[in-house]
From TrEMBL:
Protein name: LLM class flavin-dependent oxidoreductase
Gene Ontology CC: cytosol
GO terms assigned for molecular function: monooxygenase activity; oxidoreductase activity, acting on paired donors, with incorporation or reduction of molecular oxygen
Keyword match Oxidoreductase: yes
UniProt source species: Actinomadura rubrisoli
Luciferase-like domain boundaries: 1-295
Length: 362
């Protein structure tokens, strides 16, 4: 099973001292977080994509290319690649280039983002969000698999005899996740292509994500990619840990109360009771994360958010060390013991996709 970190890259004042990091500091902090994730034995680092303050990661492939040069094993991914407002031709070329630079250690997550104004900034209409996601990904899927593409759609200029360059490394496109917090159409899209489905699993009660993941599993089987329990599922999670649960709650509370997304809303206690947020000891994180399997079935990737809301870098690195030393080894063992033999243990990687291509056809 793959475990890792995802970052939304927010630049938020630290509520305990009022200090706001510069954009340069925040960008370099994200690089340090990725490096520490590899050092701690985690598998994945994923960055969001945003084009508005208070976020800095507007160019994920630039950041991931830099991280690729500073790491050896880490899978480099996105927590959102905006399939709606990015040109699919540019996505195809940017991520193929990153594949080559990173020796295949690349996948990505398609999403529509959570910022409505981004659509007109890039010449799009938010009312076309779902059609854009469907059409753009259909083109991207072809660009990675066909050397010469003729194409015409509703939302971009036609292509005639077009070849995106560079071609995917070893002829194998990056594995794609489709991320959604609310749209059954995206779960359907992931199932249709046999791609992965990633449920953010942070802000909403489990029943909401159970419906989306359940739909994805049923439709994955319907399209003939395998049994529903073999579908490739990823989940988000949100944690803050200390050796003593009371210390964790006391230290995290001001960050929670002032966080850009959920600050000044439900109490910390209400939020932890109703969502997957875990604030407590490593043992409590293990217990709550193991329960995700009870809610959603066996799954292949677990990413944790640990660096938001103004938390100092030193604190974030401590969180990653605790995940690597105390939490993830137990989760790996427990999830592996529970997983049926026919269910994939991990999401596809570049190496596993090459190996699958060499297998004889049934």
């Amino acid at each position: 099973m793959q475990f890792g970190i995802f970052s939304v890259g927010d630049v938020t004042p630290d509520p305990t001292d009022g200090r706001t990091p510069s954009e340069a500091e925040r960008i370099k902090a994200m690089v340090a977080i990725a490096e520490r994730a590899e050092q701690a034995g985690l598998d994945v680092f994923a960055t969001g994509e945003h084009h508005n303050p208070p976020f800095v990661p507007s160019s994920p492939t630039t950041m991931l290319g830099y991280i690729a040069a500073r790491t050896e094993r880490l899978i480099l991914s996105t927590a959102t690649t905006l399939i709606t407002t990015n040109d699919p031709v540019k996505i195809a070329e940017d991520f193929a280039m990153l594949q080559h630079l990173a020796d295949g250690r690349v996948d990505l997550m398609m999403g529509r983002g959570n910022t409505g104004p981004v659509y007109p900034w890039f010449g799009k209409d938010i009312r076309d969000g779902i059609p854009l996601a469907i059409e753009n990904y259909h083109l991207l899927h072809r660009l990675w698999r066909e050397d010469v593409v003729d194409w015409e759609g509703e939302h971009r200029t036609p292509l005639q005899s077009f070849t995106s360059t560079p071609r995917p490394l070893d002829g194998v496109p990056p594995f794609v996740w489709h991320g959604s917090i609310r749209s059954p159409e995206i779960a359907e899209q992931a199932a249709y292509y046999g791609d992965g489905f990633f449920a953010n699993n942070i802000f909403w009660p489990k029943e909401h994500y159970q419906r989306l993941i359940g739909l994805y599993r049923r439709r994955y089987e319907h399209y003939g990619h395998g049994a529903g329990d073999q579908a490739i599922v990823g989940l988000g999670g949100q944690v803050f840990m200390r050796r003593n649960s009371q210390d964790a709650v006391r230290e995290f509370r001001p960050y929670f109360d002032n966080a850009p997304v959920y600050g000044h809303g439900p109490s910390l206690e209400e939020f932890t009771a109703q969502t997957p947020l875990t604030v407590g000891t490593p043992e409590q994180v293990i217990e709550k994360t193991l329960a995700f399997r009870d809610h959603f079935g066996d799954y292949q990737r677990q990413l944790f958010l640990v660096d938001h809301a103004g938390l100092p870098l030193k604190t974030v690195l401590e969180q990653i060390d605790m995940l690597g030393e105390e939490v993830v080894p137990v989760l790996r063992k427990e999830f592996a013991a529970l997983r049926p033999a026919h269910v994939p243990e991990t999401a596809p990687t570049h190496a596993s996709q090459i190996a699958a291509q060499s297998l004889p056809k049934a």
